[in-house]
Amino acid sequence: MNEFVSSFITSMSQSPWLFMTISFIFAATIGSSLNVVIHRFPVMMKREWQSECNFYLSEYHPDIVKEVGEKRLNKPIDKYPLKYNLVVPGSACPKCKSNIKPWHNLPILGWILLKGKCANCKAAISARYPLFELITGILVAVLAWHFGPTWQFLFASILTFILIALTGIDLDEMLLPDQLTLPLLWLGLLINLKGIYASPTDAIVGAAAGYLSLWSVFWLFKLVTGKEGMGYGDFKLLAVFGAWLGWQFLPLIILLSSLVGAIVGITMMLLKNLSRENPIPFGPYIAVAGWIALVWGQDIINWYLGTLY
Predict the structure, then answer these.
(1) Which of the four pLDDT bands, split at 50, 70 and 90, describes residue 15?
(2) Prepilin peptidase A24 N-terminal domain: from which residue to which, for each copy (predicted)?
């Protein structure tokens, strides 16, 4: 087994374009599953919250149990069936409810072959699905080119998959689930015990500094304006990048995310007539900035320092 792995790594090192192609195909397939996570995970979380609320209501207000009954307390959310997770029920057309065949789920190609329509009722299928698959494939292919067949590539790919899921969920729900961000934080600290991306000390300081920097901005803004400028999920996501890359990259990530956020925010206000009061998710900008820092962060810092001296 070890000989096979060693031989595979050697062959991939000698054929970078083959390694990038394999990485793209594999990642695009994962991207198809990420679409499911983005759509279903928030529903699962809402069900959990509803269940917890029902439990406490029934505990502190027993009359509610008699009034609505157990069936009402366990009522599924909206249109989703009672048994609902990342696997069950199987993928189906939201309009005609026909099951989606495995070959229709082929990443990118499935949507193209179906011409963006359901095979049964011809209802339009959002271009968002192949877009997320394509983006996932491209990003991991870039990682394959940059890192090669190394541990850095493996862990960077895992980080990328979860960042894409977090970005999609935040865009849809203004939510960065702890169930995704916190495992990333601990994983970053653990892998840097071996110095994969940063020293253990830099990773620990980075995690703390990442969280406390935005936490401080949040409370300063709230004290001055009386409003909340961002969510706690943003603090934790920046802490993730501090744990993975070390504290040295945090200023770059904050600068890049603020720049991209400002450009996108102003553009949306101009094109969609949004006011400054409309909330805009900041998590995707942190995710994009952090991913750029993961791949090109040191080059950007070296270039900047080179312009100063």
Answers:
(1) confident
(2) 25-147
- 84-119: buried (b, 16+ CB within 10 Å) or exposed (e) per residue? eeeeeeeeebeeeeeebeeebbbbbebbeebeeebb
C-alpha torsion 264→270→273→278, nearest 10: 30
Residues 243-295: tens digit of each pLDDT: 999 999 999 999 999 888 778 777 766 666 666 666 778 899 999 999 999 99
Instruction: Break the chain down into helix, strand, coil percent, rounded to 5.
Output: 75, 0, 25
pLDDT for 89? 75
pLDDT per position as a tens digit, 217-232: 888 888 888 777 778 8
HSE (side-chain half, CA atoms, 13 Å) at 79: 4
Please return the burial class of 239, using the count of CB atoms within 10 Å of its CB with bins 0-12, 13-18 and 19+.
buried
Helices (H) and strands (E) in the chain, counts: 11, 0
